[in-house]
Specification:
single chain; mainly beta; six-stranded antiparallel β-sheet; 2 helices; 8% helix
Length: 145
């Protein structure tokens, strides 16, 4: 089944901005994906710097999605969206870089949706959601979306 930005927006009830092409098919990728101030990284890429605690509580991602991060000014949210029973999310993760928001594992395509950036899809697997940082001179700072 082809998933478009319009169909994902309708499924979740999350609106996207009018400048985005609603009929576009959402790309599905099995690698790194950046969306504003977040980056999605396959766990296998950074497994040595991530620890998922054995007592981590996993939560099923509901059809309307899970808000991962909202901009510091209270603006638009990044939302993880998946079909019922296919994706679980957890926040109890240790990250040596202290950038991880959480981790998700999915048995079907899961999507990251944002009103300004549109959506991207993740193939089945386990992924870490991290904040992005940027270098300014000698200082690193979190990307503000």
């Amino acid at each position: 089944m082809t998933v478009t930005l319009a169909s994902l927006s309708q499924q979740t009830g999350l609106a996207v901005l009018d400048h985005l092409e609603q009929s576009v098919t959402i790309p599905v990728v099995d690698g790194l994906q950046a969306q504003g101030d977040l980056i999605v990284i396959p766990l296998s890429v950074i497994a040595s710097s991530i620890r998922i605690w054995s007592d981590t509580k996993w939560t099923d991602v509901p059809p309307e999605g899970v808000e991962l991060l909202r901009s510091e000014a209270g603006g638009n949210p990044h939302t993880l969206v998946a079909d019922p029973g296919t994706c679980r999310w957890a926040t109890n993760v240790a990250d040596s870089d202290r950038l991880a928001i959480g981790v998700f594992t999915t048995s079907a395509v899961a999507y990251l949706l944002h009103p300004e950036h549109g959506a991207t899809g993740c193939t089945p697997g386990t992924y870490v959601i991290r904040r992005q940082r940027e270098q300014e001179g000698r200082r690193a700072r979190l990307v503000a979306d």
